Amino acid sequence: MEELISKCWQITKAFDIGVQAVDDELKTIIHIADDNEPLMVIEARKKMLVDMQKELRHANKDSFCYQTDPFQLSYLAVPIHKDERYNGMVVVGPFLNERVTDQMIWNVIMDNNLENNWVRPLETYYKSLPLLAKSFLAIGDLVVNIVIHPLVKAQIIASYNSGEQYRLDVEPEDYDQSGIVIKQRYEAEEKLLHYIEIGDKENAMKAMLDHHTGDFLYRVPGNPLRARKNITFSGNTMYRIAAGRGGVEPQYLHAISEKFALMIEAAVTMSELNTIDVSMIDEYCEGVKNFAIKGYSPVVKKALMFINLHFNESINLQSVADEIGFNRTYLAKKFKTEMNLSVIDYIQRKRIDEAKFLINLGRLSITEIGLEVGFTSYNYFCKVFKEITGMTATEYKRSKQVEKEAHA
Q1: 2-148: which CATH topology?
Q2: Highest mean pLDDT range out of 72-76, 135-139, 249-253, 302-306?
Q3: CATH architecture of 295-408
Q4: Collapsing DSSP states into helix, strand and coil, what is residue 396?
Q5: What is the DSSP string of 164-182?
Q6: Would you call 145 exposed, middle or buried from its count of C-beta atoms within 10 A (0-12, 13-18, 19+)?
Q7: pTM of the predicted structure, to 2 decimals
């Protein structure tokens, strides 16, 4: 994973171009891009990724796919293989194959049925992209070689006019980081992933604090939010893999990973990303704890998985029993015995946990959050929130704001 991410950075730095790596389920591993992409461009790329993956699944590992979307944006995609099996792809782009002209922009607007007021925004966006023209073929060859071969850490040889040469013993991006700090960071990462794998939330949170020491925002000069998002995307992927090793079902892992991927991309502040970081570790550890530790019966495991995926819908004991195919009375008895909570109590706690997370993000009103997590009555939401947390939702929100101000 680290090698793949390093290769993506190598590509984007070499060609000054956006790079995205996705796994075989099209979940983002890392996405290096500017934040000024129009939403319609992002949506068009999502559709193109599906088409590119179809082409690459059965292609040789030394192949690359080239496509141009309806906005005249071009992309290269190179397959990632693991044990000779397709495991995802690295997508390079967008880039242009023709110069930006008024005619080109008007053609895009007409072909995509856009309003005329898109002329200026599209012109600004297109002029921020690299123009590769025919050189995309040579770049495709180079990207294939970068992706399929092991990463080699090059050494710089500096030469003076006198002919004297010397070798730099540090890599350019790490010139101000001691080897000890780097070693400690990777050791903390190993601990963090280990604790997630065994569902140890408390130690995982401690390891997260150690792992996040160090400033990587230099990796996207002038755009610290994008750099931080890339780091958080990578964390989401690594946590998902660790939880998978801990025995969590792929169906549940996919749901968690997809949820957080959307949250990360939608985040607009560093504090949101910090909150998402904590919540990711919490949820992946809970997944391991609930679904991987021996001792839970099949009926309780199935109920937990269904509730955790659908708690924000209109569900109750009967609907859960019907969905997982067990008798209602039997489910209620087994659940209470193994969880020390009734099914309804567990559903309500999941809803309130999610509500606390949404309050911490600070985007929605209390009323909106109640509806978002599955309550149809504002008053009932407030009643349950206070019963579980000991304070009202408004009081909880105020306390979190005070904490943020204290740490600011």
Answers
A1: Beta-Lactamase (3.30.450)
A2: 72-76
A3: Orthogonal Bundle (1.10)
A4: helix
A5: -EEE--S-GGGTTS-HHHH
A6: exposed
A7: 0.47
